[in-house]
Prior knowledge:
Elements lengths: L4 E3 L9 E4 L4 E5 L2 H4 L6 E4 L7 E4 L2 E4 L4 H4 L11 H18 L2 E6 L6 H10 L4 E8 L16 E8 L20 E3 L17 H10 L5 E4 L6 H9 L2 E6 L2 H17 L15 H9 L7
Amino acid sequence: MTEQETIAAGKGTLDPLVVRLSDSVTIMRGDCREVLPVECDVVFTSPPYNMNLRIRGGKYCSRQIVDEFSTKYQGYADNLPLEEYERLNDEVLNLCLRECPLVFWNVQFLTGNKRALFRLVGKYADTLKDVIVWDKLVAQPAMAEGVMNSRWEAVLVFDRDNAISRQFDGHFKRGTVDNLWQIQRERSVDDSHGATFPVTLPARAIDAFTADGQTVCDPFMGTGTTGIACIRTGRKFIGIEKDARYFEIARARLENELRQGLLPLTHNPPRQPEPVGDRLNAVVGHGGKNA
């Protein structure tokens, strides 16, 4: 254990490991349900999709796990019973909203999660402020006959304090941010995690909906992509990840990103309003690196 590492008091049987990589980047290894809530300005996260819970004979069941076809995560089957999956999302979202006023919840509606997610939307209807559609431009072919290809994902935006209005606090100018984001998927940074989103997705949200120096939390950190977006946009980051392998991958990525010394996104006002996404591309894609 290095001098950067300390053990924080947790509520489970094992205390989470807290690693402070810099003054602005902190990552925690542990179950987010035992670590949350943490104080932050925005949550941007993507929970597991439960993609291996299927339907057979009109009933839910787990499909056979085939590494090269159906596994997105190493060491996690992604096939919770529907009630457990719904409870996971409910508990984590509730904990996030206790200390964070704005939550971006990236999901894809699939057989193994759609009923749980629709019920979640209903339960949190009074805090659901808006929905962003992530158009991935190209859809993977469906895995069965008679099933539509899934080209888009949703980013559900929950506002704890003012969801009744669609207006956000003034971090972007009128007419510069759409609710349809066309962002192509990218190759995963590690073969053991096939469900990473491109860094442009969280970066676009972070740049548009937060101010310089604010704190963003990702309770399902995975390989650390939200943290990369925070570093590149000049925000603070708190990441939580349960899996030890992914935690170490995220740690290495974030340490490498901090060593690069990338300049944060500048906010000098342009002569004419310009889309946030266009302004981000040069920063997010700096050096041509995969995120």
